[in-house]
Amino acid sequence: MDPTPAMDPTLPAWLSNFKIHVVIIALLSFLFYVNTSQNEYALDDTIVIVKNEYVYEGFGGLAGIMTTDAYDGYYKLFNSSNQLSGGRYRPLSIATFAIEQQFLGPIPKSKVDSVVAHSGENGAQEKKLISDMHVRHFINVIFFMLSMIALLYFLRYIVFKKNPLMAFLAAIIFAIHPIHTEVIANVKSRDEILSLMFICLTYIFAFKYEEQTDKKQHRWMLGMGLFCYLLAFLSKEYAVSLMVLLPLAFYLFNQYSFSKSIKASLPYYALLAVYIIIRLQIIAPMSKDSEADILNNPYALASHSEQLATKISTTFNYLKLLIFPHPLSADYSYNTLPYKDFQDIIVWISLAIHIALIRFFFYYFKRRSVISFAIAFYFINLLLICNIIFNIGGTMGERLIYHSSVGFAIAAAYFLYMGMEKIKPIATGRIALAAFMVVIIGLCGFTVIERNENWKSDKTLFFHDINVTPNSILVNADVASSYVNMAETEPDSLSRISDIKKGIHYFDRAIELDPSFVSGYLNRGMAYFKLKEPDSAFYNINMVRQLYPRYPRLSEMFFNVGVNFFVAKRYREAMNVWQMTVQMDPNNAQARNAIAVLNQQGFH
């Protein structure tokens, strides 16, 4: 059913037809992102899917998914617990991965526990894993298409009820924006897609229920609204924004009084209370070790004034990428965005812009203008992810601005349309707007499709992004790991050594940026082990022991370093390392047997 009829009699009927708009939005969404279906797994896909034991249990893992932190399966591999402030309770998207796995077929648990390379040539298990990811990527595109249809309906039915063309423009701007590539191209970010889709559906059912004169007969609409709101929460925490945005929408678009807007929202407030109780029962407190970890607390080394100044300046980065989405990066971790103080002009520019937005909100709020809703949608969702109110465990991320960009798209569509209206004759203005949109769609399409290819795997992603964010610890570490993994499949020994040394170079850079980077020392140690340089391997593995004594399989790593010493005929050093291994793990039979052999040969 068309949510809103065309109100402008001068517009051709087809230009405001809902079904035509649906087809165009769905087609754009599909064409922009269908090339992601050839991608493998990258970035957080590994943590949430590839190394999540619950996902590989299929239907059997659903109970665990619904009752644990989103990263619980990954934490178990490292004998760890919640590493992020506030935890992550987002079971819905992970449940879809488990359901997919039930139909895709099992992957042996040993594969889940292992360190996965991105070569695609590591046997049938690796090929199965990658082929499964092709399917998951395609499903992500389908979910994105559905969410864009829901967004279009929300815009036509509620935000631009008297102007379907403006709603169509806003939906197009959102669907084609290159900053959203991370959300669709990274399967893990399905939580963002589902969250926005169910938020839009919550609005739709809430407004439909309010339209009914006989509310008792249509309570199912209220039930559907509450159900969608629950699903939005189970997707991601952004649904909390509706505590302000839902009554604001009633006030602006239904012309309700302030008190009536709040009253209409009360059932949703009640559901929020239920969700908070559930979340508090499930999420464990943040591990004390993580509070000082620069990767989980990027402001750990900053003073209080530097923290605030840097957070304010980061909001300006989001605004820049919304207006001009280039260059894009998958990671902005320490030290991509250096700490700033209040002497930095960018801090004050960002502050001035956002204060101006607040003033504009109140100006347009008095006039019950759609622009006030656009600003509020942008601003409230931004407050959830900018670290000023909540510590999110990272500086910024392109996926994090996904919800806020709805406000940006609404405002952009409004001003584009109003600009067209000022051009006379009106036909010339419409031609100018159509030409502008064709150019924008073309430019965005080129950028999005090219960026999707970067997301094929960790290797392709970070080999590209190292040029964009050269001071990111994680980007340097991932480039390093990619080189070391490439060496595994390199038939030529000189090329293999060259790749490992390139990897060590990037590990050096990551550790230089963060001298307490446990994973950097671990992987650099394993790289030196492959080069048969036991002294350097021992130094790095020993640093892991000092920084993270509970690291899993640490004794196995020390045993392997001892093997390196033994092969180099440095038996006394091998003995010392194996004795350390037994002290860490008295049950390590390999180390005990090796010590016994050396003792028999007279190396005490």
Task: Report on this structure.
- Helices cover 67% and strands 0% of the residues.
- The chain is mainly α and 604 residues long.
Outline of the structure:
The protein is mostly helical. Helix content is about 65%, strand content about 0%. The longest helix is centred in the first third of the chain and has 36 residues, at about 125-160.
Shape: elongated
How much helix, percentage-wise, in residues?
55-70%
Number of helices: 28
Q: Could you give the order of the helices and strands?
A: HHHHHHHHHHHHHHHHHHHHHHHHHHHH
Mean pLDDT: 91
- Number of DSSP strands? 0
Taken as a percent bin, the fraction of beta residues is under 5%
List the helices and strands and how they pair.
Layout: H1 18-33, H2 45-50, H3 53-56, H4 62-66, H5 72-77, H6 91-104, H7 109-113, H8 124-159, H9 164-176, H10 181-185, H11 190-211, H12 219-235, H13 242-253, H14 258-282, H15 288-291, H16 304-323, H17 345-366, H18 370-383, H19 404-422, H20 426-454, H21 458-465, H22 473-488, H23 493-513, H24 518-530, H25 534-547, H26 554-567, H27 571-584, H28 589-600
Helix pairs in contact: 1-8, 1-9, 8-9, 8-11, 9-19, 11-12, 12-14, 13-14, 13-18, 16-17, 17-18, 18-19, 19-20, 21-22, 22-23, 23-24, 24-25, 25-26, 26-27, 27-28
